[in-house]
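#data-curation
PF: Archiving a pair of folding outputs for the training set. Convention for this channel: one message per protein, sequence first, structure tokens after, nothing in between. First:
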Amino acid sequence: MGVKGDKLTNASVLAAEALVEQLNDIGSISSKKMFGGHGIFHEGKMFGIVDSKGQCYLKADKANKAEYEAAGSHQHSRMPYFSIPDAVLENREELLNWAKRSIDISK
């Protein structure tokens, strides 16, 4: 998701499509255009976002926030979403683990 008023960019579209594809083993993953970016959903519950620049984020709370920060994540504005570091995006198993934790938080 971008900032309200941001325009949807090709970077956001491509990043959202790639993230959904990478998470397809989980099942029931989808994306929806929102505020110049995308919301990433599992069974209708949003657990991730892609901003208008194509940066991917996953939902975090006290259970995983410290781990995400230790891995180099940064928070998206004041929202409870943290960036997915390149090392995690490039490691499918690790990305699936991060996504599953964020899905659990979103329930």
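PF: Second:
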Amino acid sequence: MLLLIGVTFCFAMFQGGFLSWFLFYSFLPFALYSLAVFLYPMSDIVVERAFEAVDFKAGDELKVTITMNRKIPIPIFYMVLEDVVTESVFHHTTLQKAKAMVYPGFRKQIKLTYSIKELPRGEHIFSAVRFRMGDFFGVFEKSATVTCENQLLVYPSFVDVAYRPLENRYDQGLTSSTVKIQKDTTMATGVREYQPGDRFSWIHWKSFARTNSLMTKEFEERQSHDVLLVLDRETSATFEPMVTFTASVIRSIIKKGAQVGLISIGEDHVSFPIRGGEEHQRHLYYHLAKVRADSPFALGKVLQGEGINYQQSATVIFITATLSKRMVMSISNYAKRNSAVVIFLIKAKGASFTQEEKSLKAYAAARGIWVRPCFEGEFGSAFTEVKRA
């Protein structure tokens, strides 16, 4: 650029005349501007990023505002801004990058706002902002990357599920539920004859003193409504609906005042105890926000290898996208522990319940396991007694 300035100046000096000096003075402002762009310190630019909200769930719209502040008011002809973010955030949109061209001019503050229509579930990292600027002729082009870290955690979406404790009958017949009945030992409702195996503390001593025969107190029976969810993390096209269904069931159970636990079987084996309350729900949702379909083995094989530890009074609900005979055989071991076992088979919207799956459903029912197909978009009626073809 300095050489071009010198050439035009020499041309004006030797050639003389109005035209040569007009070319020199016309070219000089553009040349000086190019030199100013070359000398402009990129460290003068400070970048901030802000989100419109704090908590997001899958499917929400995200609005991002990038604010660029600078102190030196050198006019900038153009600037290309690019928000450096993990590609997962654009999974459900047509955008590939958050990139745009702005024309700052003399402004010291520039704001750029863009939106992502449907946020995918997961953890998304906004690490930096990359910008590029240049002169009129394209002789000089400068670029820099400013670190501006933000972490966005998108929780799974949920729907309203009409949760009700599992009934004592399966839709295949009169097979009784084996949910363990808990006795409330704080209140006796009557007495009966002593039977071998009754606890020593249950003996009604006043009756024994009167009749000289052992009598046992009878207590009020309460049915346990605790639920343990087991999430299958094997790679599947319906994994996201499975996570949505799991989050919806957790929300509905806790809303009913019952307690729920979660076992997430994948590359890592994560277990949450059976508890209730909003804080416990936040812990479960945090895990579901980051969980991925990374199980290297099928659920049936994992159950045979590691097994599941849980209290026997809890209803065990398996959430999976595939049903196999090996899985049913593995799960049948848990049905023998005085617990109700249910398999929710999550299927895509518009999919059909195959003949093989119907056979496996009958095979499972014969072993005390309730298999329930659940189609995407119809999660609200998952716990109602509806037979599907």
